[in-house]
Design brief:
By secondary structure, this protein is mainly β. About 0% of the residues lie in helices and about 50% in strands. The strands form 2 sheets. Strands 1-2-3-9-10 form a 5-stranded antiparallel beta sheet, with no helix packed on it. Strands 4, 5, 6, 7 and 8 form a 5-stranded antiparallel beta sheet that branches.
């Protein structure tokens, strides 16, 4: 998986040209971002894992929303990536007071299969 930042968006693209995009424009004091993990998270981790996502591809059948008190009015979504039997998870999150959301989408061959805002 490769990561590209353009304008106010960060894009994650795998070798199959599956794209996950996330609005990373910060208009105020919300806490948002992304991270990789070896397991599906239950919230924002205190310490981030160092994970090399090279060669991993998105599992387009996996999409999970995570609800956690540390996200306030925001949210978190999780995407699964695989490489053979290995798996890692890309999480997008936004902890905010209900006013400043961040959009995301997943596209496969130009067709949107998941979208929303956190």
């Amino acid at each position: 998986m490769k990561t590209f930042e353009t304008g106010h968006k960060i894009n994650f693209v795998d070798d199959n040209n599956v794209l996950v995009g996330f609005d990373n424009h910060q208009p105020c004091c919300e806490s948002f971002g992304h991270f990789l993990s070896s397991k599906v998270p239950t919230g924002i981790p205190d310490k981030l894992e160092e994970i090399d996502a090279d060669g991993f591809n998105f599992d387009t059948a996996f999409f999970q929303e995570v609800h956690s008190d540390d996200l306030d009015q925001g949210g978190m979504v999780v995407f699964r990536l695989t490489k053979g039997e290995e798996e890692i998870f890309l999480s997008l999150y936004n902890s905010q007071n209900g006013y400043y959301s961040h959009g995301f989408d997943m596209t496969v061959e130009g067709k949107e299969i998941h979208e929303g805002s956190l």
